[in-house]
Amino acid sequence: MSPAPLFAAPSSDHHEQEEGAVLRPRFDAAGLVTAVVTDVASGDLLMVAHMNAEALDRTLATGIAHYWSRSRQALWKKGETSGALQSVAEIRIDCDQDAVWLKVAAAKPDDTCHTGRDTCFYRRVAADGRTLDASPGRDSDAS
Amino acid sequence: MSPAPLFAAPSSDHHEQEEGAVLRPRFDAAGLVTAVVTDVASGDLLMVAHMNAEALDRTLATGIAHYWSRSRQALWKKGETSGALQSVAEIRIDCDQDAVWLKVAAAKPDDTCHTGRDTCFYRRVAADGRTLDASPGRDSDAS
């Protein structure tokens, strides 16, 4: 027995895909949608990750963020070992349903990035467009 | 003559890639990085798009957001015909340099999404996890 499909299939009808009330994730050739993750309180961008159907289903079912690790090729319940779980306050999906937006509350905000920071986006592209500045107050090397 | 490389190549040294001060975008197999686009004033998530090297270079050189249209397989200067240009206030890059965060000021905020909304993320995944609610006040069908 195969399990019931987790979601509806993407529709070839643009109106249904973009204006409809049915979740129809458009997974890419690798079976993934992009997940943009922000802090529900501050609105800050925390990270960008990817979800396969199982990760999206687990996230919806449990309210805890699950992703697909492309490097490990495995389901990734973020914080499962560190305790840095992300509780999902809201999920949105974009017009063509190939990207989701998770608003989360992080149990350990300083463990959001594997580099030990509260966001993965800690470097700004500098004025010359070729070098990077660490964000103000965020350069852990200088602390 | 081939042009000079636009950016440094990704480094196999994790420390250089994650802590270094050189822009080393890690384009994927399709030559793309993910671009997360937020409103510089409100912080709201506007859209998710993709950039190839040329789009990133044009964005850095002009301060106007350029993307790569995967559907049209072409460089996409957003708003070139509609006037809905995005002026880039800041660009950040993530730890492994495969995603960028653009904070923009949109010339025509209501034209951000091709559906005629000020964000592509106008639907929330409903409590049942399978259907979608339009965001409060954002359901253009009801207006």
UniProtKB/TrEMBL annotation, chains A, B:
UniProt keyword list: Amino-acid biosynthesis, Cytoplasm, Histidine biosynthesis, Hydrolase, Magnesium, Metal-binding, Zinc
| Residues the entry annotates as binding Zn(2+) | 95, 113, 120
Q: Name one GO biological process term.
A: L-histidine biosynthetic process
Q: Which domain of life is it from?
A: Bacteria
Name the segments for region: Disordered.
Answer: 1-20
Q: Which GO terms describe its molecular function?
A: magnesium ion binding; phosphoribosyl-AMP cyclohydrolase activity; phosphoribosyl-ATP diphosphatase activity; zinc ion binding
The protein's job, in short, is: Catalyzes the hydrolysis of the adenine ring of phosphoribosyl-AMP.
Q: Which GO terms describe its cellular component?
A: cytoplasm
Signal peptide positions (record): none
Pathway where it operates: Amino-acid biosynthesis; L-histidine biosynthesis; L-histidine from 5-phospho-alpha-D-ribose 1-diphosphate: step 2/9; Amino-acid biosynthesis; L-histidine biosynthesis; L-histidine from 5-phospho-alpha-D-ribose 1-diphosphate: step 3/9
- Enzyme Commission number(s) from the entry: 3.5.4.19
Main subcellular localization, coarse class?
cytoplasm
Which EC class, in a word? hydrolase
Q: Which cofactor does it need?
A: Mg(2+); Zn(2+)
What InterPro entries does this protein's entry cite? PRA-CH, PRib_AMP_CycHydrolase_dom, PRib_AMP_CycHydrolase_sf
What is its subcellular localisation? Cytoplasm
Q: Where Mg(2+) is bound, by residue?
A: 94, 96, 98
Q: What is this protein called?
A: Phosphoribosyl-AMP cyclohydrolase
Q: Which reaction does it catalyse?
A: 1-(5-phospho-beta-D-ribosyl)-5'-AMP + H2O = 1-(5-phospho-beta-D-ribosyl)-5-[(5-phospho-beta-D-ribosylamino)methylideneamino]imidazole-4-carboxamide; 1-(5-phospho-beta-D-ribosyl)-ATP + H2O = 1-(5-phospho-beta-D-ribosyl)-5'-AMP + diphosphate + H(+)
One short Pfam name that applies is PRA-CH
> Could you give the cofactor binding note from the entry?
Binds 1 Mg(2+) ion per subunit. Binds 1 zinc ion per subunit.
